[in-house]
Every structure is written in C-alpha cells, then in structure tokens.
TrEMBL record:
Keywords, alphabetical: FAD, Flavoprotein, Oxidoreductase
EC id: 1.6.99.3
Organism taxonomic ancestry: Bacteria, Bacillati, Bacillota, Bacilli, Bacillales
Family: Belongs to the NADH dehydrogenase family.
Signal peptide coordinates: none
Organism: Caldibacillus debilis GB1
Any GO molecular function: NAD(P)H dehydrogenase (quinone) activity
Protein name: NADH dehydrogenase, FAD-containing subunit
Domain of life: Bacteria
UniProt-listed Pfam families: Pyr_redox_2
InterPro entries named in the record: FAD/NAD-bd_sf, FAD/NAD-binding_dom, NADH-Q_oxidoreductase
Segments forming domain FAD/NAD(P)-binding: 3-281
Cofactor dependence: FAD
Length: 355
C-alpha cells in the first residue's frame, strides 16, 4: 500500500483532497491528512474573528469524509526527506511514499526587536482568538496599533472600526500610500474611507523596536494598549529548516511539476512554494489542482508534460467593514458595495461547496 501524506488542511490541502477524492484514488493507494486542528479554517477571515464581527463557528469547514481518507491530528516538528519520515510532537513518526507539504506561512518580523514577543498575530486560529480577547477586553478610548497596511492590516482596521468604534485605531505602513501593490485609485479610495471613519494612518513608518505596550516608530516611542502585527509573511519554519534551495522568503524553489528538485515524490503547495505570484488562498488552490492532476497522471502511468499551464488568478477582493470593499477583477479596479458583495458571495460559495 502506497501512502500519500498531506501536511496541512488549509486552502491548498483542502483543494487537493477534494480533487483527489472526486477522481478516486487507484487501488493500492492511501491518503493521510495531518493537521493541528480538526477543521479547515477560512484563514482569509481571521481578521474578522480578531475584530469580533464573526465567531469561529462561521469560519470553519469540516474536512472531507471518505473511506479513502485518514485524518491525524498532530503537530509537525520536522520533515526527513531522505528517510521519508514526518516527525510529530509527542507522536510516532509517519512514513510516506509521496508527500505534499502545505503548511502555510508565519509572520515575518523583519528582525525588529521585540516584535514577535510583544505583538499579536492573526496567522493562526489560536492567535486570532488571542487577539480578539486582548482587543475586546479594552475599555473605551483604548489605543490599538496595527503594523502593516497590506490586505490583512487594512481589513482588520476597517472591521475593528465597526466592531469597536470607541477605540482609537492606528495603522502603520512603511510606504507613502497603503496597498502600494494595488493601483493608486484603490489606495486613494481606502485612505478616504479611513479618514471618514477616523482611522489614523501613519505613512512611511519605520518600526525599529517593540516593547510591552510600546511601539517605536523611527525611534520615537508611543504607548498602545494592543499591538497587532500584519507586516509580512514567510514560509512555515518547518519548511525554512529544510536543506533545500529556497528564495528570500524561505519558500522552496520547485520543478515545473511543483516537486522539490532531487525529491520527485515531495510536492510543496501554497505559501511554502516559490511561485511568480504573491502568496494567497486562490494561488494555493490553483496550484493544488495542478498537483492533484500530476499525481493522478503518475498513478495512471501517463507521461507528464514538460511544463504545466501557467496559473491564472481571477483577481483580489478586500473588505472595508461589512458594506464596502475594493478589488481587482480582470485587472480592473472596483470599489464600493459591489466588491464587498462579491467577496461575501465567494465566501458563501466556498463554504457551500466544501460542506
């Protein structure tokens, strides 16, 4: 019996499972999912959980049920590529024949002293819950700092503005304009929304140090009751520790078939993979579909093409509270209620199709 082990039940892992189970595993193959939690979590909505506008019940989806799928709740601590072993915390190692690494990302602290120790995160369900507790235990007029005005930081700030309008929210960004990877029209729209809702935007920030309740911007300290870090991501530490070639973000460089060079039985999916796109849930899903197709062709004894089709992404959607949003759809900027409705619809469809 040949065993395919999938590490991580995030967007990439979930898509891979659904596609393989829909096609059916060939006789003599088994499928094992290893994840730290008993559910698939909608990580793109962790900002809303931290802001307190939804409960975790609304952002969890059960893993697929199938006689072809076994599930193991465990915490991965090391991957031994040469001996084909996955080491787990306080559990026996798991042997694999083929492996898909989809362990996701972690915060990137850019070597800022104290950032990891003295800020909250929204990268995991546990961290998002802790951020929620910290924020919503604050009295009126409490001060919240959000470091990083990318998509996560912008959505958290806007959602928090609606959830706790009594708080002072400060959003720090190192660029001259927020969402600098987006067209300027979208940045201007979001900044205008922030001004209208009294969110303090600190441009061209340079966070040099963080202490308990103190944020240093360009060396100048300012007191905050809660500090949340959304200033970049990197590959999971388990992946960063692998003795393979990686890019500057710790993501693994891959072959055209999404495998690690010299380990054609090991695939890397999602935020751990070095791809010509910014990491996203949509990218993980598209890549997972291709990995599933490669596996199915291999199992059927069919030849693989020299290269796979270029991954195409449909666009990006962001929310500003519950009624407004922004996005890029087919490279066209959109703002207002329409992108917010589109995002809600995409989320509903995802939950519907995944149980």
């Amino acid at each position: 019996m040949k065993k395919l082990v999938v590490l991580g039940g995030g967007y990439g892992g979930m898509t891979l499972l659904q596609r393989l189970l829909a096609k059916g595993l060939p006789e003599g193959h088994s499928l094992l999912l290893i994840d730290r939690t008993p559910y698939h979590w909608l990580k793109t909505e962790f900002y809303a959980l931290a802001a307190g506008t939804i409960s975790d019940h609304h952002i969890r989806v059960p893993f697929p049920e199938s006689p072809q799928l076994e599930y193991l709740c465990g915490h991965v601590v090391k991957i031994d590529l040469d001996n084909r072993l996955v080491h787990l915390k306080d559990q026996e190692p798991v042997k694999y024949d083929e492996l898909v690494i989809a362990l996701g990302c972690e915060d990137r602290y850019h070597q800022v002293p104290g950032a990891k120790e003295h800020t909250h995160s929204i990268q995991t369900i546990e961290a998002a819950r802790a951020a929620y507790q910290a924020i919503h235990n604050l009295p009126p007029k409490g001060k919240v700092a959000i470091v990083g005005a990318g998509l996560s930081g912008v959505e958290l700030a806007s959602e928090l503005c609606e959830s706790r309008p009594d708080l002072e929210v400060f959003l720090f960004d190192r660029s001259k304009r927020i969402l600098s990877a987006f067209p300027e029209r979208l940045s201007n729209y979001v900044e205008s929304w922030f001004r209208e809702h009294r969110i303090h935007l600190v441009r061209e920030a340079n966070i040099t140090k963080v202490e308990e309740g103190v944020l240093y911007n360009r060396g100048e300290p300012e007191d905050f009751d809660v500090i949340v870090w959304t200033a970049g991501i990197q590959a999971n530490k388990i992946v960063r520790d692998l003795d393979v070639e990686k890019d500057g973000g710790g993501r693994v460089l891959l072959t055209p078939h999404h495998t690690i060079p010299n380990y054609d039985n090991v695939f890397v999916c999602g935020d751990c993979a070095s791809l010509p796109f910014a990491p996203s849930a949509q990218l993980a899903e598209r890549q997972a579909e291709q990995i599933a197709d490669v596996l199915l062709k291999r199992w059927a004894g069919e030849p693989l093409p020299p290269e796979l089709p270029r991954i195409k992404l449909k666009g990006i959607l962001g929310s500003l509270g519950k009624k407004h949003g922004f996005g890029l759809v087919a490279d066209r900027p959109i703002t207002g209620r329409v992108p917010r409705l589109l995002k809600s619809g995409v989320l509903w469809l995802y939950k519907f199709h995944n149980g």
